[in-house]
Fold this sequence. Notes:
The protein has 120 residues and is an alpha+beta fold. The chain has one domain. Helix content is 15%, strand content 42%. The protein is built from three helices and ten strands. It has helices at 8-11, 72-79, 91-96, and strands at 16-18, 28-32, 37-41, 45-50, 54-59, 62-69, 83-87, 98-99, 104-105, 110-118. A four-stranded mixed sheet has the order 1-7-2-3, covered by helices on one side. It is globular, with a radius of gyration of 14 Å.
Amino acid sequence: xxxxxxxxxxxxxxxxxxxxxxxxxxxxxxxxxxxxxxxxxxxxxxxxxxxxxxxxxxxxxxxxxxxxxxxxxxxxxxxxxxxxxxxxxxxxxxxxxxxxxxxxxxxxxxxxxxxxxxxx
Length: 120
């Protein structure tokens, strides 16, 4: 997918936060799990790969694996280094496909799980 032809609004999701479109890029990539937070500097990004249902993001010390739907938008945003944060859903949100306080049905791209593995 070409990031040059993808509009910023197509990269948006309720499950991740994008940096502003002012041309500045975030310094780090935050992975918010239910009970733990990881912060990875973009300077340590090795590669990212995936498709609409799975994205792998490798940093020098860890592999972040994201599963869900519509994740090509996430991959494009990582390639452009516009992702500030990805957030793991609460169990009930993931199980029932709803998000937030009003428990509205999720529309558009969404994350179902995130795993972070340290390289040995």
